[in-house]
Design goal:
Keywords: NAD, Oxidoreductase. By secondary structure, the protein is of the alpha/beta class. It is built from 8 helices and 7 strands; from the N terminus they run E-H-E-H-E-H-E-H-E-H-E-H-H-H-E. Helix 3 runs parallel beside helix 4.
Length: 259
Amino acid sequence: MSLPGLRDRVVVVTGAADGIGAATARLLAERGARVAGLDVDAARLEATVAQLRDAGATALGVRADVADEGSVRDALARVRADLGPIGALVNNAGVNTYFDAGRMTVEEWDGAFAVDLRGAWLCLKHALADLRAADGASVVNVASLHARLTTAGMFPYAAAKSGLVGLTRSLALDLASDGIRVNAVSPGWTRTRLVEEWLARQDDAAAAEAEVLSVHPLGRIAEPAEVGGAIAFLLSDLASAITGAELPVDGGLGARFAG
């Protein structure tokens, strides 16, 4: 499917080494975008970027830690120098953390929020001058179903992702006059490496997966490319009247009444 507004646009995708980030980078590259992937895992990122280049795409991989402002600033300067001004941003980098509220340390709290929430702001901050100068600039933040509905044991992930949705709405208002759209996608269960590793740790992986699938109205969980498709749509000119929105990509799980 052709998506207007993506061809030759420089798009930065954080957390691009695998999973949703890699799938998004691939979809954008297939539609003619000039893709810059950022990730802390340099080896896995380079393998992903090499695949894009082998397929004929213009792609760049830059090791960066989104929690560190200097790292973000330097990475985006490299993107600008190698590919040109940034025209779109996908804030996908994140960590899924499991802590007890009574035992979590301040350092652990700060570390989780630095990646899941502060990183999105830092990337926007250092891309903002380019985005303001671009025609039809767009930002997509990858939040989570946990921003609205969560389960026990997901503290502080749910809090950080709720904050990311709030950040999305606020920035959509702040940047609308600059012609910059800001939206979020909220994936539910998605067949990423982390989900596969979680299933493998269960006593009965097949039974655990069957239980997960049973609560999804569609009877399956999303593939990373399906989340990437929603991101690509929101970045494109087909979504030119959409800003401040949160789009669930959760197989209908968020619409289900428990019981």
